[in-house]
Amino acid sequence: MKIVISMLTLIAALYAGQYDKVKITPLISYVYVYHKGKAVKVHRIQDTKNKLTGEYAKTYRPGKYIQPIKIDDKIETIGEDEVIDFMRNKVNKKKGLILDVRDRKAYAKEAIPSAVNIPSKVADHQAAMAKIFRSLGMKKKPDGSWDASHAMDLVVYCDGLWCKKSSDFIKKLVALGYPAEKIKYYRGGFQMWKILGFTTVKN
Fold it and tell me: In the chain, N or C: fewer CB atoms in 10 Å?
């Protein structure tokens, strides 16, 4: 029996070690998050010579400008560590959602695991936003305002530091009555997620 336990411990250690070359933090090699009902292991690419190619390797885009860190005093701007923590403590416990506000084609091709797609242009349609608000735990009061006591925590992201979609979408959420303190802005977005070699999913 002791031999079997020792073998299982060794196998578990070897398996964990597969993700120790490039860690997320000094203490975290990977985490699991649910994406469309399936558990996805989120980790960083272990090839230390890996280089980014394609659209997200570009450093310049005509007509696009770097977005500010702060978009609202009540909205926290976060990085990758905080996104991972949000996955573990909010998404996995069904207390929060990660919103990908890029267009449907970009989301279908590749996205952050567990992210739900709501294209930013949807924010211009009041009926659609009312339906989205209800799905996020908001309730309409008799006076037409929103009861936010059960609103979900959100992380919102788009293409990256140069993309306005997430900041514009967040401003629209707040203007329509969503509580700013329930929203986190992942400014680095999909480009930084890719640059750091994190796991992505197709939809």
Answer: N
What does the alpha-carbon distance between residue 183 and residue 75 come to, in Å, rounded to a whole number? 6
Model pTM? 0.90
* Structural domains of the chain, with CATH: 54-195 (3.40.250.10)
User: What are the residues facing 38 on neighbouring strands?
Assistant: 35
For 54, the enclosing helix (H) or strand (E) is none
Instruction: Record the tokens describing residue 7, joined without a space.
Output: 């073998």
Give Cα 199 distance to the centre of its chain: 12
Distance CA 1, CA 9 (A): 12
Quote the CA–CA distance of 161 and 113 in Å, as a whole number: 20
Q: 41 - beta bridge partners?
A: 32
